[in-house]
Each structure stands twice: as structure tokens, then as C-alpha cells.
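A reminder from the course coordinator: this example appears on the midterm review sheet, so study it carefully.

Given structure:
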């Protein structure tokens, strides 16, 4: 989820701070009026039995392509924490799970909370058997920062949450905005997705009407990607720079 090179090629004419339209921000979705998503958002935030906790990295909190603001306007039961780790005091909801974890029966195989992050120790979310009202924890950051956030939060989460994942292939390079109608920024590995798509895919497995919720969220994300792609300028190949002292090659 690193910053996209193509983001530097965004056509900001009529969208940047020098234009009048850029200063007109929609009160409904918080985006510039010419890329307003209010027509795509649910008329009312979608209610879920699942509580979604989002650890939002401070850098992403200021990033124009973050999907978290749109996700929180689409879902009712979301809780956003701006920070770099989860620990006691970060969230009353998580603290209650942490405090009561010692009294839980060891024979209870249903996870009380799930945090999404791929890796060899992660269980595919389809293999879990969560109870209604399970807490879903997602980390919103670049790939590098998200890994640091997960590592920093692991000790706190270990007593009450299970690490889960969606489909991910570390052997294949991820796509970009030109490859998929759901990708906003270049992804490091195949299967890595935006926070909004990850939440939508997870809710498909966690909610009784999961497929419907997934579809509605992904429709919003598609419109967001479409608006963003419409402001991309064609990318020109960059000339290859020669190292100092390296002779120039003659090309026919």
C-alpha cells in the first residue's frame, strides 16, 4: 500500500488549491465537489453485528487516497484510532475484551476478535467460526508501516484476538489503479488490498448478509477508483539516468 508513483501524475486542473472548485468541499463525503461520492454512499450507514476497529496511521490520516473516511461513512459500527499501535487505553472496546480474556473458557473456539494481516501465522478468515458481534480489527497504513503496527500491537492482541488473512500471494507483485477497478494505489503483493476492500471481504464471512454488504461497499470503492482514475494524466517513460562516470551508449 505504498504511495503511488502515478499519484504524482494526477491531473489536478480544476481540483487543486488554486481553483474555486477545490475549495468547495462536500459536507456529506468530505471530498471536493467535483469528485463527490455522496451519490454512491449508502443513504444510511450500513448496520452490522460486527464492530470494526481501524488503527489509522498518522501519515494515512492525512493522505488523499485513504479509504478510511469513506468506509466510516458507509458503515455504522466503526471505531477509528489514529496511532501506531494498539495497547491498553487505546480503545474501551478492546480493553474490555483484553480484561475479560482471562475468564474465558479455553474450550471456546470462537474468536472474540480478529485482526487482519497476511503472513504464515495467519488463519484464512473463511476457516474461522466467529460468533455474532465479533470485533474486526484492521490496520490502515503502507505495507511497511502496517507490519510495524501489527508487530507493536501483537502482545496486547494475543490474549483475545486471532490473526487472520484474506487471499494473498507473496510471490506475485500486486497491481495498481490501471489493473483493477478496486485498486487506488500500487500494492506490494498480489492479494493486498485497500482497507475498505479488506473490510468488505472480511464482512462477507462475518455477517449473515455478508455478500450484500460486501457488494455495497465495493460499489462505493469502484466509484472512488473511477473518479481518481479519471484525473490521472498519461504517464511518460522516465529517461534512465547514468551513473557518474558511466559512458553514454549510442543508440541506432
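Designed residues:
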Amino acid at each position: 500500500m505504498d504511495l503511488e508513483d502515478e499519484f504524482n501524475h494526477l491531473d489536478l486542473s480544476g481540483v487543486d488549491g488554486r481553483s474555486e472548485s477545490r475549495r468547495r468541499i462536500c459536507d456529506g463525503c468530505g471530498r471536493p465537489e467535483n469528485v463527490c461520492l455522496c451519490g454512491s454512499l449508502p443513504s444510511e450507514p450500513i448496520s452490522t453485528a460486527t464492530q470494526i476497529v481501524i488503527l489509522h496511521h498518522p501519515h494515512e490520516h492525512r493522505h488523499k487516497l485513504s479509504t478510511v473516511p469513506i468506509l466510516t461513512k458507509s458503515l455504522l459500527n466503526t471505531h477509528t484510532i489514529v496511532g501506531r499501535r494498539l495497547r491498553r487505553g487505546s480503545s474501551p472496546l478492546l480493553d474490555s475484551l483484553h480484561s475479560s480474556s482471562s475468564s474465558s473458557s479455553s474450550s471456546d473456539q470462537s474468536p472474540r476478535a480478529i485482526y487482519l494481516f497476511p503472513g504464515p501465522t495467519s488463519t484464512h478468515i473463511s476457516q474461522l467460526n466467529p460468533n455474532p458481534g465479533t470485533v474486526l480489527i484492521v490496520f490502515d497504513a503502507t505495507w511497511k508501516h502496517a507490519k510495524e503496527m501489527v508487530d507493536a500491537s501483537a502482545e496486547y492482541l494475543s490474549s483475545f484476538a486471532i490473526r487472520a488473512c484474506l487471499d494473498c500471494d507473496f510471490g506475485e507483485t500486486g497491481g495498481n489503479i490501471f489493473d483493477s477497478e478496486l485498486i487506488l494505489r500500487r500494492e506490494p503483493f498480489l492479494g493486498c488490498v485497500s482497507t475498505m476492500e479488506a473490510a468488505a471481504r472480511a464482512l462477507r464471512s462475518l455477517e449473515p448478509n455478508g455478500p450484500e454488504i460486501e457488494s455495497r461497499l465495493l460499489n462505493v470503492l469502484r466509484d472512488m477508483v473511477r473518479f481518481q482514475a479519471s484525473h490521472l494524466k498519461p504517464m511518460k517513460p522516465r529517461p534512465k539516468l547514468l551513473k557518474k562516470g558511466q559512458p553514454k551508449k549510442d543508440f541506432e
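The helical segments are 20-23, 58-61, 68-74, 92-100, 143-157, 195-206, 210-229. The first helix runs from residue 20 to 23.
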